[in-house]
Write the structure tokens for this entry.
Amino acid sequence: MVSRGRLLLLAAAVAVAACVAAGQGSPGVMVVPQPRAVVAGGGSVRVGKGVTLLDSYKEALNDKDAAEYIENAFQRCVRNTMKAQDGLHAWTLSLHPEIQYQVNTTVVAPTATVSSVRVVLGKQPFPALDVGVDESYTVQVNNEEITLNASTVWGVLHAFETVAQLINWDGKSFTIQHTPLLITDAPRYPWRGMLVDTARHFIPLDKLKQLVDGLSAMKFNVLHLHLTDAQSFPFEVSSYKELSGKGAFDPNHAVYTHDDMSALIEHARSRGMVVMPEFDLPGHTASWGLGYPGVTASCWDYLNAHQPDYPENGYNPIFQE
């Protein structure tokens, strides 16, 4: 399993590369994607290991799910990030012999310890999650606290991912560099997605959830599932069971149930991501004809699609003769 620590290391590598390529950005203030604006100071603060999330944000919410999303994001992005790094040696990120960044070395000795995170929400904080919803946010770090300000819960989730990238372990304590620090950010593109081809490469549910975790850490907002194609139909349709019964690579181990999809959609939603399923048609429907031959044209031998010598079976990683 890819740990959050490895994801953050990747984020740091990408951020350094972006700053070097663009010739901008402050060393140590490395956030992916690059924020709209960064105002950085020359100090640093220590982040206490017992840092807490203030519950004042709940006054703006009347939805249990929204509160849980924020609490879980704090646990995932702040507490778990600190837990994963605690006790490790400081590490050096080197992209080139002449370009070395000691990412986790504090610029100056911390002048204060931050022990709380405050979330400030707008007047309509929990709109329906969809492409184009307000995801803007600010992160402010000073000697008193970390403050996340966003119009919506979805912006807060991205703000927590930014905080996860800002927290550094220098081998002795957790710090945030370049304080006082103000980051202002909003998506440049309303659709920031990844297409996953589960028709040709069946991916188990737990791996899809893991993928969502990684994508949300990089502030993606869409998981596009290319769910069906000529090669397989890996989705259970209760009124037409033979679609997956005969159209899936393996009807016992390579089919998504309704519960699977519901669980994936909720897992993604809790991280500010939309799941966009795609049922490919009117072409690319050979797999449909395996269970219901009458729904496909008879000008091609669809029934050969499941045979071991069918050339496109090379796309199926779990096929067993």
Notes: The first helix runs from residue 4 to 22. Confidence is low (pLDDT under 50) at residues 15-24, 305-321. The radius of gyration is 23 Å.
